[in-house]
Amino acid sequence: MLLRHFFIPKIAHSSYILQGNQTCAVIDPARNVSMYLEAAAEAGLRITMILETHLHADFLSGHMDLAGITGAEIVTPASAGCPFPHKAVRDGDSFMLEDMRISVVETPGHTPEHVSYVVADTSRGEEPVGVFTGDTLFVGDAGRPDLFPGRAEELAGKLFHSLQKLKELPCHCEVWPAHGAGSLCGRAVGAKYRSTIGYEKLYNPVLQIDTAEGMIRHQARGMPQAPDHFSRCSEINRKGPGRIWGSPPPPALTPEEFLSLSRDGNRTVVDLRSCDAFSAQHIPGSINISTLGNFPTFAGWVLEPGKEVLFVGNCRDQVMGAVDDLAMVSESPVRGYLDGGLFAWAMKGLPAKGFSQIFAEDLKAMLERHEDITLVDARGPGEFSSGTIDGALNIPAPDMRTRYRELDPGRRTVLFCSSGHRSSLAASLLEARGFENLAHMSGGMAAWKAHFG
């Protein structure tokens, strides 16, 4: 038995290959399956199984592509009700991968259908060596149960009982979760990729909770905002995401072709460049989701599902990376990208806009002069409550799509976040809704604290 770990930082996603001598299983695969195919080929192994712990809410899974390419059997919780060919498993089921026995434990809570897979390497012994916990148990945390409207308390209660099951595993049993630090599937997921049941029983605060009522109080409330795609991905994964393997890359478009396509209301122009470059010059109505920030999370959050996407970037490599990142969270097709970027656009004399980028010292002076501005902190509520600039309103960047109505388009609006990426996104959303007098602070709160403490 050999375990290989794969990690996607932007969505803090962990997936695994469980290897035997000739065959292997992929657990909770990402949508871009090339890394698993390459790893299996390098090791001379056939992928014969794909194990899904649950219907993932934060990303689209690669199970359909991987099964289509390799012929591997997809294993999913029976209660998920997946319509595609698969092996449906329930609590107490077990199956073999060469000498490895994989036992199914139903562990609902994060989602209603969640299971964990307990692995025993019978070539060495009958005791479990590890457990794929998906989003039930993380290092230092547990899965959030609040993603299904009206069911948070019910699922938190189920999570408590699921964690009791996992606590019964031997202390030496390793914990292999589906997410690490930075994931929005928990509140405070640890940075380690793996742990043990024994260590988590000692130091994981969620495992110290000793009643279902306590779990409800702790886990059903006060979670970070859930991006919009969290409400869509589970159902897409249940039905089976469309296959993307072998799809042709989106074409490079001349400025004239790009302009023509962008005028269709069923398409969204997404600018991938830095906040600095976007504020200097951009296509009117475009949305700035920089690849320097957490592109997949914010793309899934703010882009309207079903609409085609047109990309503006610095180079083809940046665009192709964004194509892969968007596919993690959305089935929206990328119609093409602007060949030559904004330089080619400007050379054709096509319409462009910009908005002011100010520095921390400038904002300080504006506030001291009592200028008539609306100051907006575009960070999340937790960040805002931990400290902000006096007089700022808190409207998280993704919420600007609806909460723009709380702002006066006739006043100068100055936005900031932690570094500049989210405030530029928020400003672009406001501009697309008719706001003209906009500015955002370069460097965000990091720059403010560096100057003024």
Explain what the structure shows.
The structure is a single chain. The protein is of the alpha/beta class and 453 residues long. It folds into three domains: 2-239, Ribonuclease Z/Hydroxyacylglutathione hydrolase-like (Metallo-beta-lactamase, Chain A, 4-Layer Sandwich); 252-347, Rhodanese-like domain (Oxidized Rhodanese, domain 1); 356-452, Oxidized Rhodanese, domain 1. The protein has 16 helices and 24 strands. The protein has helices at residues 34-43, 63-70, 152-167, 197-203, 212-219, 230-239, 255-262, 275-280, 295-302, 316-329, 341-347, 360-368, 381-385, 400-403, 421-431, 444-452; strands at 2-8, 13-19, 23-27, 46-51, 73-77, 87-89, 94-97, 100-106, 115-121, 128-134, 137-138, 141-142, 174-177, 195-196, 252-253, 267-271, 287-288, 308-312, 334-338, 356-358, 373-377, 393-394, 412-416, 438-441. Helix 3 packs across helix 5 (212-219) and helix 9 (295-302) packs across helix 10. The longest helix is centred in the middle third of the chain and has 16 residues, at 152-167.
